[in-house]
Amino acid sequence: MRESSSKGYDIIGDVHGHLELLTALLEKLGYRPVHGTWRHEGGRTAVFVGDIIDRGPFQVDTVRVVRDMVEEGSACCVLGNHEYNALCYALGLRDLRASDPHHTFLSEAPKGSAVYKECISWFLRLPVWLDFSDFSVVHACWDPLSVNRLLEAGVTDDHLLDKDFYHFAVRGEFAPEGSQENLAYHALDTLLKGREIALPPPYTFTDNDGRERTRMRIRWWDGEAKTYAALALQPGVRDIPNIPLREPVRTTPPAKPLFMGHYWLTPTEIPAPLSSSIVCVDYSAGHGGPLVAYRWSEEDGRRLTGGHFVLADAFTG
C-alpha cells in the first residue's frame, strides 16, 4: 500500500467502459498523461471501486488506462462484481444470458483472444477490498463477518483470489449450507454485490435492467428502517412495498469511513454521503449518468462532506 507517500486520494465510481467520462474526470481532478499513464500533478492517488468494464463504448482501452495507472503507482483498484462475473465466465463457472452486459466487453475482447487473456489476467490481480488507515474501499458492502470468512478460507494478506479459490468459492453456492466453501461463496457475494433480503410473497419488483426480482438490495448499515421501502437500496425502483419488515435486519455500520460503488444512485441527485461513515460514488455512469469521484485528504480526518464530490458527465465533461 502506497498510503504513506500519497498526498490524498480520489475515489472514483463505476466507469463501465466510459473512457470519455474517465479522462474528463481525471483532468478535472488534476491528473495528466505522463510517459504513457495518468498521474496527479500534486501526488494524489486515484482509487477505483471496480466495475471498470461492461456497458460502455470503450472496454479494452478503459481497462488499459486503469491498469496502467495501478501498475505505475498512481492508482489502486478493487474487484467489482462485473470483473468477478467476467472471471467466473472465463473459468467456466457461469453462463451468459443473451441480455448480459458482458457481451459488450466480449465484442471488443472475444473469449480466448490475446486481449481477452490480457484483461482477465489483470482482473485476477485485483483485491476484493482495500483497507487504509483512515478509510476502507469495497465494491458493494463492508461486512466484517464476510471479510473474516474469506480470510479464514484462504484469501491472501493482499485480499487477492486465485483461480483455485474461484472454483472453490463459486461452486460453494451449491455446497452444503454452513460448509467452508458455501460460506466463502456468500461472503464474496455480500462484499461484491451487497446484502439482500427476500420480499414477502407475493411481492416482486422490476429492477433497472427490466428483470423481475423477489430479493432487494438493502441499506445494510441502516438500523432505523422499519419498512421494506425504507430499507431498500434500489434507486429508481418505485414498486418496493411500503410494509413493515417481517423481522429485524442485522446491520453493520463500518468503524471508519467506507467508499463503495455498485448501487446506481440517481444521477439527478446532488451527491452526498449516504451516512456519516459511508459514501457511494456510483451515480449511474453506465446508464447515462455522471462519473463521480470523492476527494479525500488526510487533514479531513474521518469527516465526510458533500463538498468533496467531483463530477464529469456527457454534457459538461
Description:
- This protein has 317 residues and is α/β, with parallel strands linked by helices.
- The chain has one domain: 4-Layer Sandwich (Purple Acid Phosphatase, chain A, domain 2), CATH 3.60.21.
- The protein is built from nine helices and 15 strands.
- The strands form five sheets. A five-stranded mixed sheet has the order 5-4-1-14-15. A four-stranded mixed sheet has the order 6-7-12-13, with no helix packed on it. Strands 2-3 form a two-stranded antiparallel sheet.
- A hairpin with a 5-residue loop joins β9 and β10.
- The longest helix has 14 residues.
- The chain is globular, with a radius of gyration of 19 Å.
- The mean pLDDT is 94.
Briefly say what this structure is.
The chain has 317 residues and is an alpha/beta fold.
